[in-house]
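Bug: token stream looks shifted between consecutive jobs. Job 1:
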Amino acid sequence: MAMGMRRTVIVASVVALAGCATVTTPTKGDPFESYNRTMFTINDKVDQYAFKPVAQGYVWAVPEPVRNSVTNFFSNIGDVYIAANNLLQLKIADGVSDIMRVAINTLFGVGGLFDVATIAKLPKHSGDFGLTLGHYGVPSGPYVVLPLLGPSTVRDSTGLVVDYFGNPLTYVSPDSVSWALYGVNLINVRANLLGATDVLADAALDKYSFVRNAYLQRRQYLITGGDDSMPDYGEAPLPNYGETDGAAAAEGASTTVVPVAPASGAAAPRPASGPAGTVPGNQYVPPSGFPSFRLR
């Protein structure tokens, strides 16, 4: 374990030093792209050598029904601060529905291990303080990739502080139990994203642009409720890093996630939750002082 962590630190350090080249043509709306790409690569390497292997071992060792119950348990806890944010946004019906979800799943779902509320036609919502700020017109600010936390914006990064204090796990005592719960949640959610990781690796010409566009479009969709057309964040060509071979061929390509216009009378398609590395909606916020992934 110690050897594996040492190798991860070395790899991350090498990548950080090698990845600090300035992006020649930063994408419009992404002024921190040079830093963001470096941090994205570091996060990706840490995930590749640390988190992904642990998640794969978790899937191998833990039966699927148990994993589903773990997911339901933390989802039920998340509904508490989702309800709070929906009420702050004056979405009274959604907030009351979220409170009912918590009550039903806690009482009849054995402490949230079973999702009885969904069977009772109470839908799962998304909510965090970044979305609440966006609901009241606070601009997102530039896109930024946080160390280990992943995709964010200036607005959403500010919301993380409130999300931390709004997460019931923050108040679990003793601290060792709180850390254990956060750790189980981290491993479980990463395990749930294993399939998305493979799809992203196979489908994306430029993983950074794909994740950025998916994250920003998803957040915009959640704020507007699908009433607005989702913006196109990828009009600019991929940046030129000064390479003369394969990169030149890729220049001008676009990996934008652009929604297809629905046929007349059809409902607008709901965008996907995004690939691994982007977890829209709820935030995973660890005990103070310890950075981690943004997880549902």
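Job 2, same session, no restart:
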Amino acid sequence: MTRRMLCAAVVASATVMSGCVTNTEDGHPEGWEPILPDTVLEIAAMVPAEAAADGVLTAGTNPPFAPFEFKDSSGAVIGVEMDLGAAIASVMGLKYQPVEQDFALILPSVQAGTVDMGISGFTDTEERRQTFDFVNYMYAGVQWAQQTGDDIDPEQPCGLTVAVQRTTVSDTDDVRPKSAACEESGQDPITVLSYDTSDNAALAVLTGRADALSADSPVTAWAVNRSDDKMELTGGLSMAAPYGFAVNKDSALGPAAAAALQYLIDTGAYRDILAQWGIEDGLIDEAMINEQPVEGLS
């Protein structure tokens, strides 16, 4: 089935997803307003010269991954991570510029210095920490969803067809290891449908191509809330882990961004930004890098 045919099917069954051809949504949540604190000079002074030279904080991102990043009807990249990135940049005395990239190319771009940060729903894992530092801003986990009324158990996945976004933790650390365990026990493996974006993975469930969606918990919740009651959560939260903004290992930009995030936490702007996107769970009260408090911030 082509992408255009998929969208036509979804329009018939779930009009809230009808913008899938252009990967757009209506826009900001009702009542949203920009939160851009003034520059804090002592934090701006922490920004390394190579990042401060042009006055712009560039961040590689891969929409759509709502509510973290997606495009509105005008094509602008919006989302809770975009708001957090813009607020952190503002505290550091910089303008914020998202740079749309394929998800798999973001971390290499950070490493190459073509963008300053990776801000695209990155789970802070031990493997990624070998090369990058992560400025942690919340905790999330893996959550499954199904068509409403189905009886899918994430703990009994053998023989199911499960949709994921390619190279995410749901793909690499959840579904594929479960599939391997099924085969080792002599059962049918999971058929994994890997998509470039999370919205296409959700569409696979809505159109019946997949039995379930596995995605990061805020992403799954967002898809369910916009499915016109045609999808529901199933099973519990698993693999809780920190989310973070990626910078090069041992870069001075990490502590500067952590200091800016701590300022947002202390002033309440952090909680306000997440609340505007309906995120109230998994919040932190202390900025961390690789889950470790940064000395002198709090």
